[in-house]
Amino acid sequence: MLDSLLSLDASVLQWFNALPHPTSLTFIMNAATISGVGSAIWFGLALVVVRQGDFESAFRVVLSLIVTTVVVSGVLKPSINRDRPALMAISERVVAIQSDSPSFPSGHAAGAAAGAYSLARVWFTRAPLIWGLAIVITVSRVYLGVHYPLDVLVGFFLGLSCGIVVTGGSRQYR
């Protein structure tokens, strides 16, 4: 069963990577990936929340990102230790700089979901823009060939789960 799932995962990545990669879209995807390194964009937006004087909400955003990082990069990635696509000797066209950290689950996708969830609760009028950014960061990882689709799906839902747990579920901050 697991072998079939991993084979399907590699096939979907190969199909996705065979699609056209126009220079302008590749530039956008690289920028999205760079903004997601270490959840930098989300920590930066938490600083904006601090500047607005909402320290409690900013704390929750930062705490959700820290918990997500510990769970994904501190526990799951080293435990599962899945090789990245380019290291698997299949025919992906890797566009981004390759990382040597394990592939599963995606830290970029997890950070994007945790950051988007906790920030959308603060800036609910900007939630579509925030979630759009999170989705672009997540998709960029597959587009650039540095993650399998399953890596980003699981990472996204792990980050979302961490964000929900840390921020207290569905109630709004304000």
Q: What would a concise description of this structure say?
A:
With 174 residues, the chain is an all-alpha fold.
Descriptive key words:
174 residues, mainly alpha, 0% strand
Radius of gyration equals 16 Å
Distance between the termini: 46 Å
Write down the oligomeric state. Answer: single chain
Shape from CA axes? globular
- Please give the largest β-sheet: none
Order of helices and strands: HHHHHHH
Number of helical segments with 4 or more residues: 7
Low-confidence stretches: none
- How much strand content do the residues show? under 5%
Structural commentary:
The protein is mainly α and 174 residues long. 70% of the residues lie in helices and 0% in strands.
